[in-house]
Design brief:
The complex is a heterodimer of chains A (about 150) and B (about 150). By secondary structure, chain A is an alpha+beta fold. Chain A is about 55% helix and about 15% strand. Chain A is globular, with a radius of gyration of 18 Å. The chains are: A alpha+beta (about 150), B mainly alpha (about 150).
């Protein structure tokens, strides 16, 4: 059974800048929105660290935040959540692969996109490995990693 | 202000990039006699008379999306270009940032986490980690002294 982190928060409606700020950080982390303001990430020491400080920031801008570590208590629900994480990152990977097929692929930009996606690839998607190999092959010289 | 500077500092155990950098900054610029105490996040009360850092809610911790190292520079008025640059690198290494300008950040984060893994204690990790920040500071300073490439 996996462990998950849930960030539950409330933030004043005004100023909207605060809400947008927090929302963008959650996007950056690749967190999944479960319900109204319940965001979830797989538990790692790293995600715990990131969510802990985000909770502190939410309180600093006048909101309330609680951070939970939890497990699914019902069989069969976990897989669906894992798939949501995979679907999001795989979508980005597919876009990169598609762009790599173009004749004028912008390799430095696509490599950066890959790095960003990889930071959110919590379940180590097979597609990610394929993107990595394709990027390495596209740069010319010897292909693949040693 | 100066006379009230504490000699005992407390933070959570299992130090990473921000706390290793803070410890380096404290010993180098704030309190050369600093002693450090590392406590578990579960510990409810912090040791008396010790200045907490990088603990949520503390004065010397994350504020408005900036790391604790950044808070220390502000609190102790250490306004120096190289230290500000290091603060930016640690911001990117330790917090979620949309704008990434410092390629050294991700590597520094990994190396600091690795330093903790190869060290027997948090104390050993901050002692060893100091070399990394001495090196970073020295190289950034050298780059600044060299200035931009010649136009001719």
């Amino acid at each position: 059974m996996k462990q998950w982190l849930m960030l539950v928060y409330k933030i004043p409606r005004e100023p909207t800048a605060g809400r947008v700020y927090v929302w963008r950080k959650l996007q950056q982390l690749g967190a999944v929105l479960l319900q109204d303001a319940v965001w979830v990430l797989p538990y790692t020491s790293r995600t715990q660290h990131q969510f802990q400080w985000l909770a502190t920031e939410i309180e600093e801008i006048g909101g309330e935040a609680t951070l939970w570590r939890s497990e699914f208590a019902l069989d069969g629900q976990e897989e669906g959540l894992v798939q949501r994480f995979e679907a999001e990152v795989n979508e980005t990977y597919r876009q990169i692969l598609k762009a790599l097929k173009g004749r004028k692929a912008n390799l430095p930009a696509l490599a950066r996109q890959y790095q960003q996606a990889q930071a959110r690839d919590y379940f180590h998607s097979e597609l990610g490995k394929q993107v990595r190999q394709t990027l390495l092959a596209a740069r010319g010289g010897s292909s693949g990693e040693e | 202000m100066k006379s009230r500077r504490p000699t005992k500092w407390v933070t959570w155990e299992n130090v990473g990039v921000d706390r290793i950098a803070c410890a380096w900054l404290i010993r180098k610029y704030i309190d050369s006699n600093a002693a450090f105490v590392f406590v578990s996040p579960q510990q409810k009360t912090l040791p008396k008379g010790a200045e907490p850092f990088d603990i949520p809610g503390a004065r010397l911790s994350h504020h408005r999306g900036h790391c604790s190292f950044h808070a220390m520079l502000k609190a102790y008025k250490l306004n120096e270009p190289i230290l500000n640059r290091i603060a930016r690198i640690i911001d990117e290494a330790d917090t979620v940032q949309e704008v990434l300008l410092e390629p050294a950040a991700a590597g520094l984060d990994l190396i600091c986490e690795g330093i903790r893994l190869v060290s027997d204690s948090d104390q050993a990790a901050i002692d060893r980690g100091a070399l990394v920040f001495d090196a970073l500071y020295c190289k950034l300073k050298r780059l600044e002294e060299e200035g931009p490439a010649d136009r001719n």
